[in-house]
Amino acid sequence: MKKWSLKAGAGFLGCLLLLGVCEAQDLAAFEKAVTEHKLANGLTVLLLERHSAPVFSFYTLVDVGAVQEEDGQTGLAHMFEHMAFKGNQKIGVTDAAAESKVLEKIEASYLAYDEERRRTVGRDDKRVAEMEKAWRNAIKEGEPFVVKNEFAEIVERNGGTDLNAGTSYEETTYLYSLPSNRLELWAYLESERFIKPVMREFYTERDVVMEERRMRTDSSPIGRLVEQFLAAAFVAHPYRRPIVGWPSDLDSFSATDARLFFERHYVPANMTIALVGDVTAAEALPLLERYFGRLPAGPRPAPLATREPEQFVERQVIMKDPSQPFYIEGYHRPDSLDPDNAVYDALSDILSAGRTSRLYRALVRDQKIAVEAAGFSGFPGIKYPHLFAFYAVPAEGHTSAEVRQAIHRQIEKLKQEELSEDEIRQVKARAKAALIRGMSSHIGLAQSLATAAARFGDWREMFRQVERMEKVTGEDIRRIARQVFTDRNRTAAWIESELPGKKS
Fold first, then answer.
1. All domains in the chain, ordered by first residue
2. Which of 155, 207, 355, 420 is deepest in the core (most CB within 10 A)?
3. Cα distance between residue 449 and residue 443, in whole Å
């Protein structure tokens, strides 16, 4: 998950420094430089002109992720992200009309096969095998019509770089950069793949996603532990489910499910696009109207209704495994709109900002019981109430129990001891330094614009977050530590190594 925080605002203030704007005029200067426009169909567009090089970057944020999925369809948001690169009826195909007939045949045979294999009473295994064979034969019929990777190749042939996409619990994003004289090509390509996508190679790609899950989760001890940790920390909220999906869901959902998911969530009112670079509003806005105005309007999906109930007892997940020990714990906190959000950012800095941070000094440098340790906010997302998490990787010969105790000692210090003015000043100085370091990337700026607008309702909020950080006091940090870091609010998970010679 890409958390918007002080780091996300770094590019903005860095850009201001490049423009030579004094601190008191930052927001006013940006309000002059940023153009905000809403199309008639509801799409939000943000544009920031930077003419330092003849290139531009964009960041498309669709306000849908894993939390919007329905039971039995986990992984579908991520699956559609893959589909968005497969093209449409004009890109990625040799004969769209012929392919369309084969795709209908593939889907009909799959739905029939899936219905038969799910029967619990009266299932005919021989018939199931025959129907699976018919479905897989239909898939082979569609292969000759596919022009693989055509969308990406068009982008790259025209000087495109950083072509990428991502799915988190709360959003799906698309991005790349192009020369500024390819602005109209970008508007065409990016709008086309959201007008009427084709579920091309859907079931082949579903197998790819299944393999991705095996590599990142099933074959990774830490991946398995973290999946179980989140399932224990959230008993009601969809943060408890994996972004990549449960294996049984990946083996079951259909291209029809993906199409319906797209139609429900990929509506213009649920999308934000930010453009940054060598483009002008006078040039870009007519193109955005011309191409993105073709996207059919639709109602924005209803907000998520489920809220995580208050936790009353510590929850624990203990995994015995012949692997490196690992420890993680998390405490429920409010969402990123909470008035104390900047306090949580300050806590993250104090605990984890480099080799001078409290956890590194205590666990890694001084006690030498861990090779890595951190405490951070925004896990696994920020849109809804989430977790402030701590983790540590025990050093050789040390255990998860040892690092757990050491983390708790540092938490008690935060609760009981006053923070020095010097430590608070260092937190704020590091925040300002981070802002300056993040000034170079067009894509970073586009991401910050789109994310602040989507998450906080106003791109200007990134400035206000920085201002709130300046007001954080040591007493604020002690107050939040006492309020949030309690035994009853804790979920902990750890690996107890079963390797010979290691303690459990």
1. 59-292 (3.30.830.10), 315-497 (3.30.830.10)
2. 155
3. 10
Q: Map 376-439 to HEC letters.
A: EEEECCCCCCEEEEEEEEECCCCCHHHHHHHHHHHHHHHHHCCCCHHHHHHHHHHHHHHHHHCC
CA distance 155 to 177: 9
The one-letter amino acid code at 220 reads S
Rounded Cα distance between 264 and 275, Å, is: 25
End-to-end CA distance of the chain: 32
Q: Cβ contacts of residue 288 below 8 Å, gap of 6+?
A: 37, 39, 45, 187, 273
Q: What is the number of alpha carbons within 13 Å of residue 142 lying toward its C-beta?
A: 27
Residue 293 in contact with residue 39, Cβ under 8 Å? yes
Nearest by Cα to 173 from 47, 46, 80: 80
| pTM for this model (two decimals) | 0.90
Rounded to an integer, what distance in angstroms lies between the CA atom of residue 419 and that of residue 405?
A: 21
Is the distance from CB of 358 to CB of 410 less than 8 angstroms? Answer: yes
- Residue 68 sits at φ, ψ, to 5 deg, of -85, -5
Decide: 145 and 103 in contact? Cβ < 8 Å. no
Q: How confident is the model at residue 30 (pLDDT cuts 50, 70, 90)?
A: confident
Tens of pLDDT, residue by residue over 379-425, are: 999 999 999 999 999 999 999 999 999 999 999 999 999 998 889 88
**Residue 55 to residue 40: CA distance in whole angstroms:** 28
Tokens matching residue 328: 């993680």
- Written as one letter, the residue type at 135 is W
